[in-house]
Design goal:
- This is YdbS-like PH domain-containing protein.
- Keywords: Membrane, Transmembrane, Transmembrane helix.
- The chain crosses the membrane at residues 12-31, 43-67, 186-204, 229-255, 357-378, 384-402.
- Residues 64-140, 259-341, 402-477 form the YdbS-like PH domain.
- This protein has helices at residues 13-25, 31-36, 41-65, 133-148, 153-162, 173-182, 189-198, 201-212, 215-225, 229-259, 299-304, 332-341, 355-379, 390-404, 442-446, 468-484, and strands at 68-71, 75-80, 86-91, 95-102, 111-118, 126-132, 167-170, 263-267, 270-275, 280-286, 290-297, 307-313, 325-330, 350-351, 406-409, 413-419, 423-429, 435-439, 449-455, 460-467.
- By secondary structure, the chain is of the alpha+beta class.
- It has 4 domains: 10-162, no CATH class; 167-183 and 259-341; 186-247, no CATH class; 350-418 and 425-484, Pleckstrin-homology domain (PH domain)/Phosphotyrosine-binding domain (PTB) (PH-domain like), CATH 2.30.29.30.
Length: 490
């Protein structure tokens, strides 16, 4: 039975408003230029900002007003668009997963966002914000009945209640603290804020006047004048450490908010996780959609003996982290257990030719040395011979990268490893390889070596300075497996 065309809750307009605001965030590089134009600041503040706000609210309301949907036992239909009207029909036989997400602004009203992923789509092809849980469960129940052929909703609920997951992982608050330490992206905001503050003399003056009026600042200035350079250096170092500590605390709080009560379940060939303190997310996919497995371990993660695991599907090129299927932090035994559940075979890592280091140092070291030598000669600040010191530096970097650079060609998976201090490992199923390219430039030809580039549905990886015959053997084996595969690809 098909439902009538219906709109989402009026509060669903908040989703469209925030989506439009997120689009304006892409204009942040223009902020320093706007701040630098002192004569236009008043016009921008009192005229431009209100106009933009009115425009955002109006457009968001119209997006909500023209957004309608209906569904039946075979699929779902959407109508959307202001000037460019769009009508989308998605049949359940093309749907791979149905995801639920509850944003923080929907939680007081018990509203959810319903997302449907189809085969070959990039992310969610259908996203319906601001619906009741009963409606979302109704759509999911019809989808399950269509896929499983069960006659009633009660049969589906009984089957789900009796099903027991093969594996369950729940992250403790301590593990989330480790994730916040491992992935502190807020540290990159410090130089951006510094640039913005330096472009506004008015804001700088206001901050300077506020600081000068503080008694503790005046006391600190007197202490600094009467102290030696050792004390001043220690104080500056303490302030920097305090600033880094604040950034890491904020990173930990963000990790807590995003992945609170993270629970991963593996049931047969289906993986599912749910998490979130304010925005609740429920997302899953089936193993046959898996295009590659990415394992990352940075510097701090190495100290903590933890890893981050990301599972990429078709057309998931890593740009949208909000829709990624990620296991934020795992230890070594847990990582091995999940890889075993995904049938990722243990890699047989092999290194590339050591001569790669020689060519890297010769090329990049010479270019940097010539640039530094020219600058030293033109300014007479340092002897030109100091430019030769770049070679030991580049030699150490080349050795570190070569030591981390490895590849593995197994019976079911092909693997690539790269990095310097930390590392990243990428594993692709052999049967999911889409494209192969074997190339040989002048330098590689000199050493009878080549470079092999491999594309899957999610990303591309390459390995060079390996014997051409060995890479040709790997290429032929991959092509043979892809040609013989008759199963599901996405």
């Amino acid at each position: 039975m098909q439902t009538d065309w219906q709109r989402t809750s009026p509060l669903g307009g908040l989703y469209f408003l925030l989506r439009n605001v997120r689009g304006l965030v892409n204009l942040w590089p223009a902020i320093p230029a706007v701040i630098a134009l002192e004569e236009w600041r008043g016009v921008i503040l009192w005229v431009g900002v209100p106009v933009v706000l009115v425009w955002l609210v109006t457009v968001s309301f119209l997006h909500w007003w023209y957004f309608r949907f209906q569904y039946d036992d075979r699929g779902i239909q959407l109508r959307s668009g202001l000037l460019h009207r769009r009508r989308l029909t998605l049949e359940f036989d093309r749907v791979q997963e149905i995801n639920l997400e509850q944003a923080v602004y929907f939680r007081p009203f018990q509203l959810w966002s319903l997302g449907l992923e189809s085969a070959g789509s990039k992310g969610e092809e259908v996203h319906i914000p601001g619906v009741r849980r009963a409606l979302a469960d109704d759509v999911r129940g019809r989808f399950l009945r269509y896929k499983r052929g069960t006659p009633t909703a009660e049969a589906v609920k009984t089957e789900q209640a009796e099903a027991k997951p093969d594996y369950t992982l729940t992250l403790t608050p301590g593990e989330l603290v480790r994730f916040g330490l491992m992935h502190n992206t807020l540290i990159y905001l410090a130089p951006i804020i510094g640039v913005l503050l330096s472009q506004s003399s008015g804001l700088t003056d206001v901050m300077r006047q506020w600081l000068e009026s503080r008694p503790w600042v005046q006391w600190l200035a007197v202490v600094l004048k009467s102290s030696d350079w050792f004390f001043v250096a220690g104080l500056v170092a303490a302030i920097l450490v305090l600033g880094l500590a604040v950034l890491y605390v904020l990173s930990i709080l963000l990790a807590m908010a995003r992945y609170w009560n993270y629970t991963l379940t593996v049931e047969g060939d289906r993986l599912h996780f749910q998490a979130g303190l304010f925005n609740r997310v429920s997302r899953g996919f089936k193993q046959h959609k898996l295009q590659c497995v990415v394992v990352r371990q940075g510097v701090l993660a190495r100290c903590l003996n933890r890893y981050t695991l990301k599972l990429q599907q078709a057309n998931d090129h890593g740009g949208n982290t909000d829709s990624a299927f990620i296991v934020p932090v795992v230890d070594a035994p847990t990582l091995q257990r999940i890889q075993a559940l995904l049938d990722v075979e243990p890699p047989n890592w092999q290194r590339t030719m050591p001569v790669r280091m020689v060519w890297s140092v010769a090329l990049y070291g010479t270019l940097c040395g010539v640039a530094l030598g020219t600058a030293a000669w033109s300014t007479s600040a340092l002897p030109v011979g100091w430019a030769l010191l770049v070679y030991p530096v580049f030699a150490a970097l080349a050795w570190g990268r070569w030591r981390r650079r490895r590849y593995s060609a197994g019976e079911q998976w092909v693997g690539f490893q790269s990095g310097l201090i930390g590392y990243q490992q990428v594993f692709m199923p052999n049967i999911k390889v889409q494209k192969l390219e074997l190339s040989q430039g002048p330098v590689l030809r000199r050493h009878d070596a080549a470079e092999l580039k491999v594309w899957s549905g999610a990303r591309s990886e390459s390995v060079g300075f390996v014997s051409r015959s060995r890479l040709a053997e790997i290429r032929d084996a991959l092509l043979g497996q892809v040609g013989r595969h008759r199963g599901r690809w996405i």
